[in-house]
Amino acid sequence: MVAIRRNGHRRPPPRHTIGPMRDLSRGVGVAAAAAVLAALAGCGTTSGTPVGGTTVVEQPNATGLLGALRKVRATEQSALLVEYGNVDAVRELKESDPQRFRSLEGYGYSDLAGKAPVLRDAAGFDPRGAAEAIRVGKPPAWAGVVWLQVDVGLVNSKFERTGAKRADEADATTWITANDDEVDLKSPFAELGIVTGFNKVRVAGDSIAFGPSAKTLGWVVEPGGVTLGGDNPVSELAECLGDVVAAMIATGPTSVAAGIRVDGDQVDEVVCAPSDQPGEVSRRVQAKLDDVSPQGGPVWSTVLRDARAEAPGDRPGMVRVVVPAGPGTVAGRVFQSFLRNDLPALFS
């Protein structure tokens, strides 16, 4: 039996909420920026290192996937690919049924997932203990953030021992372990397989953000007024997915999203794609889902068994596929199809 809290996860502590920054908060943000940029200039780092430390406006009902998207700046690059995990909820699911839900572990922090067992010793934190995590963009331009209770002194001491340069703010420290996009195969983190991901790391009491460059780190530590949770293709796909414990969203010529919804004992895998003719396309998709002997491509009747396609009235311009994942079914089939890039053809 699956039993998790509705929207089931601990929220990061409210002391330092990273969220969409309004124009009225610019004064504090600029002051923090000036201090940190001056410190970074003294360290001889590349220009443009993000500053964080801005005052932000709390967003009502900003929880789950949409809440996380509202903490990420909307850019052409950050919108290309989004990976999200409600780490708390996934952890509870895995504890309730390891075989069924183990495959969901690591979403939102995939770059760190394989190194999690050794990160506590190397960097002072374990991403598996996070409440939520999100990763945006595609290499080489990407960034990630995990929201968790941080032992700031421990984490800072770990980075200090590597010889990294630091820039302190009122409530956070940015560590510069390498220049923007630099590949240093001799760094202590490269030895763990994190080649560029920790070039820039921002440590705060409720989060650790990281990325290969100052520019991309800025997406998740200083989101600005326009975020991925606003009126854009990413948020529309997220709204179509609904309340998910894990999600992947890709935008571009063939935009598509996949996620896992859990409501009590009901587990559904969900896929969404935009369409100008959702009614007609949903019927075409259903025919593919029902076809037991297609002429080519995946046998969707087997891959996504018992799936149903719909043109949801609550999300105009979308086609949604819902796949029930009953007891004994390993969750994550839609993610496998997403990663194989099979899903765009389903909606074509």
TrEMBL record:
It comes from the Bacteria. This is Putative secreted protein. The lineage of its organism: Bacteria, Bacillati, Actinomycetota, Actinomycetes, Pseudonocardiales. It comes from Saccharothrix espanaensis (strain ATCC 51144 / DSM 44229 / JCM 9112 / NBRC 15066 / NRRL 15764). Residues 1-22 are annotated as: Disordered. Residues 1-14 have a biased composition (Basic residues).
